[in-house]
Amino acid sequence: MRPGAICTIGYEGGTVAAFIRALKDAGVELVLDIRAAPVSRKKGFSKNQLAAHLSEAGIGYRHLRGLGTPKRGRDAARGGDLESFECIFLAHMDEPEALLDLGEAIALAQSRPVCLLCLERDPEHCHRMIVANRMVGETEQKLRHLFLDLTGVQPD
To answer: What domain range includes position 111?
Structure first.
């Protein structure tokens, strides 16, 4: 049996509680962290803390470093050069580590409900859209973008 949609989520501006609530509401069983460097200045979103919070909520965690944006791509994105960012990331997706982790992400998505995680709130401005589209192209699953409820949340 194939799970429903492949989900994506960005935690920008949110809290761990809002993040977990969004995942639970969507029926996510496994978070696939596709940040190259799974660290965050936002409390609770660095790799080990996040994995612990998710575990307490009954949600699995897997870091797929190969699907993260290389430093050159992150630098281009920070500088507002989205065209270079996209070219760099698309080239990266043909690298062996990225292909290996993409294969793992696809296999996991076909076995249970997963959600791709990165920082950016808007999936249109995040590499997770490229990864998600590749996965959907292989699995023919639907794509669903989750958003955190920012009601009453103080900005970072």
So the answer is: 6-146
